[in-house]
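User: I'm putting together notes for a lab meeting next week and I want to include a structural view of one of the chains we've been expressing. I don't have a solved structure, so I'd like a prediction I can at least talk through. The sequence is below, exactly as it appears in our construct file.
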Amino acid sequence: MRSHRFSRRTFFRGAGVTMALPWLESVPVWGDDTRLPASEPPVRLAVLFSGNGFHTDEWWAKGAGREMELGKVLAPLSEFREKMYFFNGLYNEEALKGNIHSSQTGNLLSGAPLAAGGEIRSGTSFDQIVAQRYGQSTKVPSLVLACERANPGIHKNYSMLYSSHISWSSPTSPSPLELYPALAFDRLFGDGAERGDKSVLDAVLTEANRFRGQVSSSDRRTLDEYLASVREVEQRIDRAGKKGELQGWRPAIGKPSMKRPADGIPQDLGEHMRLMCDIAVLAFQTDSTRVCTLKLNNDHSYLRFPHLQVDDVGHHELSHRNNADFLKVNQFFLGQFAYIARKLEATREGGRTLLENSMLLYCSSMRSGRHDAKNLPAVLLGRAGGKLHGSGVVDYSAKPNRQMCRLYLSLLGKCGLAMKQFGDATEPLLEL
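Assistant: Thanks for the context. Below is the predicted structure for the 432-residue chain, given as structure tokens.
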């Protein structure tokens, strides 16, 4: 490998901008973590969530590898069957106590008991445990994104904040949600200084061009593709912020009583979700963070989906209808998951792809709109940097010790955190 003066902490810098480097074969960019070989990429973790479960008859999988059969909900993931685990039969015991959306969601990623009666207390979620471990090595400890506002209400003595947050940085602190693509983008590429209307790429273009002359021809192509991706996301954010209010949310009044800021939430729900997916990919590509949680909607969600030409009702009501329209929305959500996986798979990091260096978990806090939380839906994609090898169905429906936290213990271990206990689990899933 050629010798360079660059390290993992090398950034392109401009007025109000810092831009981290993507993985490059001729630059030893991962050497900041002494537990990794100089150019061995770290493991990334992403958790995607959608509320209210899935179509009762179409969330299933059979077999393994290329021969794996998928229900219609999972059809968008068919190209990833050789890198997919489908989990069946896992659940959180504490989530069964209230039998409502809030009591089944607030502890989804922790398995912790939830406080009721006006008090807010859950448990630190496993994604934030990973963030506390990896956060010292990245610009952003974790990226917690959302496409629907948190609900501060109360439902049957449980705070609706539980329905709005799956990521918790402490038992009493849900991780703040970033709904605005522009602000999430600024977290990755801003340095806190004012840069006015100048774009990220314009601010660092001189330094980027100088850097291109010091890397291999293959790395120049990688760098050009990466910079083009940043430009494209930046332009889409700018366009989306000028369109008005979020399409899926119905305000109390028909027209706004004040002029909407230009950098608001995108009007088009599909574009909003796609921007958040692209930002998550950029975050992993640049190693700006190694942990990302993306909440596509709340449990007990009010989002509507007119762009899918389905019934004009909120997602929660649609889940109780369990019809073809609900299936179409399910596939729309899983399509976002597939989109992230596809972009990560197209990004090379040495001998593997970025997807192979990642773990992507998709989950919900109930199997379907019937509130059935005794068999939680979960799908895992990726190879965890070579630590995951198989694929197929991991079925615990007829086995003891069905704690969902056993899955989290396994994923924590793949991130280098060998814990003896997490939540109500004391052993990982042996299948992983």
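A couple of points you could mention at the meeting. The chain has a mean pLDDT of 85. Residues 217-240 form the longest helix (24 residues).

User: Perfect, that's what I needed.
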